[in-house]
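Hi support team,

I submitted a single chain yesterday and got back a structure, but I'm not sure I'm reading the token output correctly. Could someone confirm the output below corresponds to the sequence I sent? I've pasted both exactly as they appear in my results page.

Thanks,
R.
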Amino acid sequence: MTPFCRLPDPRNLFAHDEAAQAFADILDARASEDEIEAFLIALSARGETMVEIAAAAQAMRDRLIPIDAPAGAIDVCGTGGDGHHTLNVSTAVSLVVAACDVPVAKHGNRAASSKAGAADTLEALGLNMERAGQNAEETLKDLGICFLFAANHHPAMKRIQPIRQRIGQRTIFNLMGPLANPARVKRQLIGIARPAYVPVYAEALHHLGTEHSRIISGDEGLDELSLAGGNAVAVVEPGGVRYQRTTAADAGLPVHPVEAIRGGDAQHNARELRKLLQGEHGAYRDAVLFNAAEALLVAGVVDTMPEGVEEAAEAIDKGLANALLNCWVAY
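Hi R., thanks for writing in. Yes, this is the structure output for that exact sequence:
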């Protein structure tokens, strides 16, 4: 048996080649589980750099099982782990944006720290996750939406998942999902739960390459745009990164506290999402409109946030998003 290699000391900053080799060794099982555990804990304690985030994401991209996607496809995805246990905003946004004729390759997983992840809630709405995975390319082409269950596309992560569970705290792999979409989308709306990490994450995505993506984080540590206060936004394009601030007022929406969109288990979140798509007004609708407007800016189909809110509201009020969900469930 070939002996395991030693990972570098994460108390030091890594050069790109060193970081790339470390994550290749982790994902290709050339490092022991104990070594990986110690490495991830120490790296998190020190704070991950742009170089390390980009290297880890590239290592995952190099090993994923891809699907084909139409031109202009986007992803709307959060890193999770914000601890606010809100209703499924990015899942609802994905349906609304897809109903606006923007193909959405939704990358997601089951709940890790929340009560209901995207996969849990979609399943409670009637989506057969196994069939949705098998038909992902077809539904993306035919309906303009698919769900890419992370476990189906990242076999290298199978060995890492128990290590992450054993660690029981956030590691660099909590940041990886949005950066390793199997559809290889070039436009993304990514929510992260750490506002201070927006510049680091944005520079990593710029290094990896994108046509137009936006990194967002609510000041409360929300991995989506928050209606409660301010939000950090990084606009990432080939020419560089621009930083902005935005609030609900910029989109013509009212302020709501985070508690107004507090979620529950998958069944509860599914009921609330269905009511939203059937036209119910309130804080949840406003949160979805706010984030959908940002996603439509990413897709390049609107020029302003109020225009995006109007477009998203029309997709809901005409029943288009609800009909899309019904077609998807029945596919």
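A quick pointer for reading it: The chain is about 45% helix and 10% strand. Let us know if anything else looks off.

Best,
Support desk
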